[in-house]
Design brief:
heterodimer; A: alpha+beta; four-stranded antiparallel beta sheet; B: alpha+beta; Cytochrome-c3 Hydrogenase, chain B; 2 domains; four-stranded mixed beta sheet; three-stranded antiparallel beta sheet; 16 helices; globular; binds iron/sulfur cluster
Amino acid sequence: MRLPKVRELKEAIKSLFSPAYTSDFPRKPHIPYERFRGRPYFHEEDCTGCTACAQVCPAKAIEINDEIKGALAKRKLTVHWDICIFCGQCQANCLTAKGIMLSREFDLATTEKREDLKQTIEKEFVLCESCAEPIVPYDQYVWVAKKLGPLSFTNASLLLFYLRSIGLALKERIHPGPGSKPAAINRSTRIKTLCPRCRREAVLKS
Amino acid sequence: MSHKIIVPIGPYHPLQDEPEFFQLYVEGEKVVDIDIIIGYNHRGIEKLSESKHFDQVPFLVERICGICSSSHPYAYCLAVENILGGEINIVPEKALYIRTIIDELQRIHSHLLWLGLAGHFIGYNTVWMWAWKYREPVLDMFEMVTGNRNNYAMFKIGGVRRDIKDEDIPLLRKMLDELLPAVDLFRGAVMDDPVIKMRLKDVGTLTYQQAVDWCVVGPTARASGVNIDIRRDDPYGVTERLDWNVILEKDGDIFSKTIVRILELYESISIIRQSLDKMPKSGVIDAEVKDIPEGEGIGRVEAPRGECFHYIKSDGTNQPVRHKVRSPSFMNVASDKVSAVGGTISDATITLAAVDPCYCCTERVAVINKINNRKVMNGWDLVKLSQEKTLKLKEGYHGRPK
Ligand code: SF4
Ligand code: SF4
């Protein structure tokens, strides 16, 4: 009977003379561990706009909006931090591994509305030179072309893109804009940046 | 009594944070009946899971319970791996060890959480504070290894998502070394303290036969002498290769339930230590499973509260067609019907809490006088009553009645 009390007394004295166990949070900033999964951020320069992150996100926290206005088509990628569950799947499955990354920020408090807890980036589309349908975001094109290297010469669209990027082909033509009548498909159409459907037609018909 | 007036409190009161509702019917001091009402928080997890692809489901089931947040994804992964040919045949060696380590760490933090709250309910607030203080380093280790204190996002079909790195191992060991004296302290504090013994012995007893009849699982069953433990009966992870014991007690009262949980802390610590010793230094942690064939599978995991069961039916697409979950508290909570009835109301709180019903459930209690059907007290009054009883016993023991 006496012994247990002594043991507990020891613990009590130890607690009495040690500083409070809880952290001094608002006064001293809390630094989470290195692998802490906090608020995810898009990094515009590394993101290609491929939407893989949105596909894998279990909480559907990443919203994709394709806006097509005249000859200008944009993909808007939004990560909603109020829906995000900080699982890290987006980062783990990102095409470039750096397009969206979880930070160590744990504090999501805001004085705004919860819907404003988000980050949006925009990616410009490459349009089909025949029908003006958006194909892929420009940056994804670049990424694929770079990744394939010389192999990209097997694909006319990519070859053209590559030639343009080193200044060996004319810069982009003026897009007719969606809704306008597709340009007639003839033999020369095959050396154009085309969407899959136009490419098929060009190959079959010309 | 032909017409009953029931004054319920909860379950949507802002102070009350868990979706169970107990209604005690009392005659004087004695509990004569108990109504357990569940189902207030139907989140449609099973249906939701059928709309997600296989790899997304672990994140969903992880959120069934914030405390056993490794048991559910583990059981789910086992169920899918059952379709694929069994965990042991698919999951890489290192991942098996990581799975076991995470699972046992979770048991430690859950049992410490229970211990603290049990202490609080019987008026030992020091135990509460200390237990939660020693639980904190465990959560820190989770944050270091998995990236979060809860909801670990570790489990995936065919492996784990995050590695336990070499530099983590000494820190994990250090944490366990520091935890051991604390567990000794708690064991001493509970086993040697005559007041706690008086307070908890022969209270809320669930006999062996009752435990079998009500199909209770986990520590609740083991405290009544029912020898079940999924880790031994249907081994998963690496528990089969390690040296550990199933803790059994005979009496089935709250004292036994406390002892079972405290002694299980030692076993968990020992399991983690052995796993850290035997874990391969390097190696793949993910089998990169691509397709889930058609079939049905079950997964069983010994969660801190008992057997957690998942059933998966797959039709060869990338989504489950049926997902069924049975969590342990569902079995255990019902047994309050036998363990709490016949006792006094001051014992009710701790009796309801003793099955570890994903905790704060016990705060949602209404006591109803059987004679006039009036509500006489709520959860907080009950906790107070329980604490007062301990105080009385204490004073009686030390011979200083006030
Ligand atoms: S961390 Fe998870 S929930 Fe959050 S955006 Fe990424 S994938 Fe979605
Ligand atoms: S590059 Fe990464 S961040 Fe950008 S859309 Fe693709 S997966 Fe998402």
